[in-house]
Predict the 3D structure of the following.
Amino acid sequence: MKRPMPPKDMEAFNFDWSMHNEVPYDFHPDEDLKDWVWDTFIEEEGSLCNPDHNHLAYYSRDLIGFMWVSRPFEKGGRIVFGQCEQTAIMAGGWKRKRQELQMVQWFGYIPKYIITVCAGFAESASDAEFCALIEHELYHIGYELNHEGEMYISPTTGLPKLYLRGHDVEEFHGVVQRYGASPDVQKMVELANDGPTISRANIAHACGTCLLKLA
Ligand SMILES: [Zn+2]
């Protein structure tokens, strides 16, 4: 199964960068991208099915809206090519209705999460790079645990409780396991392999919590 590509008419592919402050970003929802992600990573028969995403399979595909964006953005000196966000309409009255209408016009419904992927990245990325980014974004949707440390299933809905979660350190463990280390993670591995310059014992002596445990 071939992975979906952003539509050719997106301005990402013939963009005049000298105009980038004047031209607004272009967004394009993609039902095919959604189906491909579900068929590939979430469904049990998927060619790259990852059981780490099992909690998503409790929900319909409308849980997540997928869209392409024409350009990346910069945050903290990094270029961002993908994002997973929880849909939160922080408004009331007509403002709320307007934002809801925008969602319905894009997706046909109001998704609980939105995953946005940069079209230019998708166009130039290898299959592995693209899959790693998609799975990275999927990993951002975590599930709550019960007291036994297992997935909590709500007795009223029969569904796990989802939330937007941060990275395990720089990347999700599952992404590194499946696709290998990115340069950032590789750097961390090298630093770890070099061994600490300050021994664990020294840190323990500097930390009040550890001192209590040592005592
Ligand atoms: Zn992330």
DSSP finds eight helices and eight strands in the chain. The helical segments are 31-42, 93-107, 119-124, 127-139, 173-179, 183-194, 200-206, 208-214. Residues 211-215 have pLDDT under 50 and may be disordered.
